[in-house]
Amino acid sequence: MPSRRQLAVAAGYVAAAAVYIAIGVAFTDFLLSYFVGLAYLLLVAWLVPAGVRRLF
Amino acid sequence: MARPGRCAEAVLSWAAHDLEPYAIQRHSRLKIAFVPLLIGSYAPDLMSKWFVYGIHLGGLDLKASDPVQFHRGWPGVGFTHSLLFGVVIALLVWRVFGSKTWAISFLIGQWAHAITDTGDTVGTMLFFPWTVHVHLGAWAYAGQTGRLTDAAAYFSGPGGVWDAVWIVYGIFSWRVLTRSYFEQHVYTADRFWASANRIFPMTALLVLYRTAFFYGTSRWIAWSLWAHVVHHYPYDISWGGPHWVTAAHSPPITWAQGAGMAGIVAAIVAGAYAYRLASRRRGWTASRSET
């Protein structure tokens, strides 16, 4: 079974996916490129959390 | 060149090509590098799919006049979906980067893509320069109808189900997405990650590793919602479906062609087996000479 920390990480990715999917359904062009997906995920799963940690 | 109905951008294939590399990485007994494996999995459509669907560039609309012929045929770029194309590019990768692991990883990814695409009604020229299309006809090929109709058709038929199988498999194999798996198996298999780690922290590399899974799964859900919740396209998961779309088809394979393909596959398997035996014998001889 996944640990609590692993579940927390997975929950973060699920939340990121929910936003990505919502944008993608509204604007399908957003779904077209792997590199857009990569940039989005780097932003929400690395840069934003790192920035927040630095601030607080 | 024909004028497309709407502006479209470059696009890769649907979700299976994003997700298969994780399963290959997990189950392969060979040393596999994930990055070239993923590039190989994307490679056949990387330079061609935009021209199949069409692109609006400045005042120009660019689109293949015969998208099916261009994408999967010869003349056309259908050779990118062949086993030989994978071998040629893998040899180039080996020569340029000096890495056998990168070459083999690219080859496996590209072969996975070429073989997966035999599932549709057009199939691929797997044994190019022999131009016969190997096709199972499980799902409708509708690339010629444009990106949106193609997406709607794909996510309404057996192709979408096939992608769902990979997503479910990936969720059951969740350990391949964990940090510990990445650090123990993926990072150590390829010097690329250590080089990248000099610039980017491990968290960023982990995000890069997980992106294809995230992208494939999210896109499958998004396109399914778009097709069935927003636009109400009907599901038809019968063989060769959905039948509401005008699918492109390759002619059925004759018995003689089938026998020829079986012969080629047998020759490839025999060659691989002979190579493995020879490698083992060389290793055995070397170990004896050392003692």
Describe the model.
The complex is a heterodimer of chains A (56) and B (291). Chain A has 56 residues and is mostly helical. Chain A is 80% helix and 0% strand. Chain A contains two helices and no strands. Chain A is globular. Chain A starts with a helix and ends with a helix. In chain B, 44% of the residues are buried. Mean pLDDT of chain B is 91; it is low at 1-12. In chain B, helix 2 (34-46) crosses helix 6, helix 5 (83-97) runs antiparallel to helix 6 (100-116) and helix 8 packs antiparallel against helix 11. Chain B is built from twelve helices and two strands. Chain B has a two-stranded antiparallel ribbon with strand order 1-2. In chain B, a hairpin with a 2-residue loop joins strand 1 (55-57) and strand 2 (60-62). Chain B is mostly helical. Helix content of chain B is 59%, strand content 2%. Classes of the chains: A mainly alpha (56), B mainly alpha (291).
Question: Secondary structure elements and their pairing?
Answer:
The complex is a heterodimer of chains A (56) and B (291).
Chain A: H1 4-26, H2 34-55
Helix pairs in contact in A: 1-2
Chain B: H1 16-27, H2 34-46, H3 49-53, E1 55-57, E2 60-62, H4 67-72, H5 83-97, H6 100-116, H7 147-154, H8 158-172, H9 179-186, H10 191-197, H11 202-230, H12 255-290
Antiparallel strand pairs in B: 1-2
